[in-house]
Amino acid sequence: MLADPLSPDLQKLRRDDDRPVEWVVSSGYVDYAQAEAFMEARVAAIASGEAAEMVWLLEHPPLYTAGVSAKDEDLLDAGRFPVHRTGRGGQFTYHGPGQRVAYVMLDLNRRGRDVRAFVRGLEQWLIAGLDRFGVKADVREGRVGVWVERKGAGWAREDKIAAIGVKVRKWVSFHGVSLNVEPDLDHFGGIVPCGIQEHGVTSLVDLGVLATMDEADAALKTGFVDLFGPVVETPPPF
Known about the structure:
Elements: H1 8-11, E1 21-29, H2 32-47, E2 54-59, E3 63-66, E4 83-85, E5 92-95, E6 99-105, H3 115-131, E7 137-140, E8 143-152, E9 155-169, E10 172-180, E11 200-201, H4 213-228, E12 231-233
Parallel strand pairs: 1-2, 1-12, 3-4, 9-11
Antiparallel strand pairs: 2-6, 3-5, 6-10, 7-8, 8-9, 9-10
Helix pairs in contact: 3-4
């Protein structure tokens, strides 16, 4: 269930005409450069009124991406996987098999023109999706993404389970979020994820939730509709 679903900043994220968002799920691994080129073209088409909004769910082969705030020293193993420099916000992050990436291309002209509210909406969307698996997650002041608390005998820590990195052009969003369903967590070791050294990363499966990617998609879809409005399933672009 969404946290505070009727608060004004979340309420305005729904379009007033409730025009459905195209909901696209790709199978297999999608090349990052191809995905980024598609987003660039689609955002331009949305901004000009020639295309509908879209949420595109996919998986990438193993790779690192560097946002506009990335620091070179946070790339610990430059030869491990391909590194893509991108215009999204944030620092270094990892994408790979077992991680659900959702590229969110929404027209914020019709959704309140408030980037902070939009980012909060993405956070609450992820939190609501995780709640459907019984995972209690939250955000932390000064830390990007969605976090879970973990405790054991004599120890406690916070791990990141989902990342957020967006860009807005002409009030149309792109890039988006990533949720760790069952990635190889060792692959995060080649970077300092989002520039945060003192905390780790986790996934649904690492937390003992044996969720499939289809189940994660269903939870994300329900949460998205609750917050952002209706969707219509559409075939992938390639």
